[in-house]
UniProtKB/TrEMBL annotation:
GO terms for biological process: biotin biosynthetic process. It holds the Pfam family Aminotran_3. This is Aspartate aminotransferase family protein. InterPro entries: Aminotrans_3 (IPR005814), Aminotrans_3_PPA_site (IPR049704), PyrdxlP-dep_Trfase (IPR015424), PyrdxlP-dep_Trfase_major (IPR015421), PyrdxlP-dep_Trfase_small (IPR015422).
Amino acid sequence: MTLLPTPHSPLPTDLDAFWMPFTANRQFKAKPRLMAAAKGVHYTTVDGREVLDGTAGLWCVNAGHGREKIAAAVHAQVSQLDFAPTFQMGHPGPFSLADRLAKMLPGDLNHVFFTNSGSESVDTALKIALAYHRVRGEGSRTRLIGRERGYHGVGFGGISVGGIAPNRKFFGSMIPGVDHLPHTHNLEHNAFTRGQPEWGAHLADELERIVTLHDASTIAAVIVEPMAGSTGVLIPPKGYLERLRAICDKHGILLIFDEVITGFGRLGSSFATEHFGVLPDLVAVAKGITNGTIPMGAVFARQGIHDAFMHGPENGIELFHGYTYSGHPVACAAAEATLDIYEEEGLFDRARSLSSYWEKAVHSLQGLPHVIDIRNLGLVAGVELAASEQPGARGYECLVTCFEQGLLVRTTGDIIALSPPLIFETHHIDQLIEQLTSVLKALP
Ligand SMILES: Cc1ncc(COP(=O)(O)O)c(C=O)c1O
């Protein structure tokens, strides 16, 4: 093995101590897949092999790897101001960044609460929604509505509104008073749809049934991923999000978009709210905000939500919530440099202009062995494989074989999710499709 040096991180002699997240630890450690370096759209493994990044890391490295501008900003910030509290204290970073971000969001989504991850952003958005109703004197609105097959991170709030059984069933009764909309995935009606499916907007009407069951006066918020990523790329049917918005409006329920994946260009617009032309009340983001370099998340709140808290004595804390690292100086510097790159290189427009080439390329996989659906939007695609006897086994085998052959994909069960960095060139798309085609042809 040609082992590459990794600065400040010695090559491990024993893999046992690190309890890996969302990983089959024993299986992985028996045959590890370790990255040592990354530049542009490629990783290099510890044994010196180049791997094409078909997933922007974990849906986060939208501007590609090894961006010098971000590295320089982080270095300069650590040297000048490594940390300063943001509880009853401050530093310029989060104020400037919030102002810049607020200008990127449509409508009056113009206040920003900083977190350190998508999970924290989701839990923060849910807490703001609950507290908002309470400060307005509607404290009976405590129910939260999520959706089946939704992924909202791993905090107790996120797994409660999320709709993935293994993420929930080990962890007790979670938070009470949660209900779920049905998911919109349906191969009978929508298989091999390009872009948004025609069928399925009516599934939003299930919210009316939930409202009838519990009464609107008990419901605080509905949270959805505008496009569900982690559960296998579920594209919203045409009109679905619009209908959810209308029903929420009718009953005074807040609508939260979890844009942890869709934010920062993934769909070819800065945010899904802009892409679909539907304005939620709160938006949760993370990942692409710093190009995956430094942990950071944020929640965007509409003017009216923020203002509802700004009452009472001026020396009173308005929202009893926050993290030691909310608005961390180094994360703010990384985010500013990331936004510079997105702007200077027009990466969101680039994603939009590449999306039709991408769509055609991914749909060329139709007809290959095991492929039962292909779906796409912006620079995302899901390729669903027929399950073998053991659900998920074929997907896992595909992931491992792709990696061995120099392509990083992500799989959820038997669904392959593709979400390349937005700096991909058409020849990278061709290469990805070629590699995936050869893997799919050989899969048992
Ligand atoms: C839609 C969505 N929400 C929340 C999260 C959780 O983010 P994190 O892993 O940063 O906590 C993710 C992560 O993939 C996500 O896709």
